[in-house]
Amino acid sequence: MKNCIKKLAKRTFLFFYSIFFLITSCNSTYYVSNAGNDSNNGRSVNSPWQSLGKVNSASLTAGDSVLFKSGDFWYGEMIPKSGRSKARITYGAYGKGNKPLIHASLTKMDIGDWVDLGNNIWRSTNRYATEIGNVFFNNSFCGIRKYSDEELTEQGHYYFNTSTNYITIFSKGNPAIYYTDLKLLSAINLVSIKNKANINIRDLNLSYTSGYSVACNSVSAITLSNLTMTWIGGQTQSGEVRKGNAVEFWNNCQNALVENCTVGEVFDAGLSNQGDNATQSDITYRKNVIYNCEYSYEYFLRGGTTSNILFENNTCVDAGLGWGHTQRKGPSGRHIRIAGTPPITYNFVIRNNIFYNALDVLNYTRDIEGLESGFTFDYNDLYQPSGNKLAQIKMVHSTTFSDYQKTTGWEANSINADPLFMDAANHNYRLAPNSPCIDAGDPSSTLDTNGTRSDIGAYESNY
Questions:
Q1: Are residues 309 and 427 in the same domain?
Q2: pLDDT tens for each residue of 111-146
């Protein structure tokens, strides 16, 4: 009898294992290329899909992957599908070359793209139903937004008329001739994830939009890795107030990871937690390089509960030195901006980061009265080469590092020294051999790779 029971149990196990194996082995990889065709099955590099529309409408199964061809590019918005806890859906890249680019830029370099209105004012031939929140000139600088044709008085000025949906530009000659490149950046979120879970997005370039790179709303189990996100934001929030973050987690979000990303030239925040009366928990940002954003990291959750937020081993440089600073209403320039905190905050940790140079302050932490025990700031390198103020905590400025430590009780093991980057002018923020950040991180960190102690910042040196 016992042998019969054992045989039955074994057969039952093998049956369910076979079913599980059959399901998991049916996971598919789909390929997307500019040279593809949406009528293809997408299941090989020789029969790829072509468009983002096809990717968004495809019936994917948990565990599937969608891979974009390196070196190719797509205009528009990607809307990922949900996977399962042990079978996430992955969006990534295949092939050699530059990361696949998803963007919202419209190149307007034909003479016929512009109509001469006189007095150096040129109007677009086309109307644009989607707001043009930014203009990118010569692949190097952004336009200056104005709010009437009468205000267009200098090269680089532009005006998007929300009533007519035309854009006008000041230019001493047809813009398609005057500039070597001209792109209109639409207000499109390049990746939109709402009420979704179990998704990986990696190895993509999500740049050139006046919207957001990745907008997450009420999500869980999301990993964003090795993404490039530059020249982001500028769309209208209300009136002449504008917005645009690279990565935002809005309202109820749990179990998210953002790592090894490069974020730069963002109108508002590089990385951000925001929402109203929401619960956010278990969100980690690590080993990211963030430069020329108005805020490197912004936390603005009004009400609700926050727990287990970890911001570690990031390199944050030149807050407020981005393209949008002088165009903002109330410019600031801060690496850490904690402007709204919920009544319940647990285990909010900011450690092992480099905060280098900000036009205002490195750390602006406002509404934390009575919540100090929920925050840990330590093992960071905070350095203001310009002599600007170091921090503003509960609306009180700290002009020196020792004053900041004394006022807050934070940063007991942090340092106040030039991190000595290899080539900051070219955005190479790796540490020079004599950097004070080497082996200066939290000894309990698990991110060390050189067998000694974690470095401060996004890059672990091997000197």
A1: yes
A2: 999 999 999 999 999 999 999 999 999 999 999 999
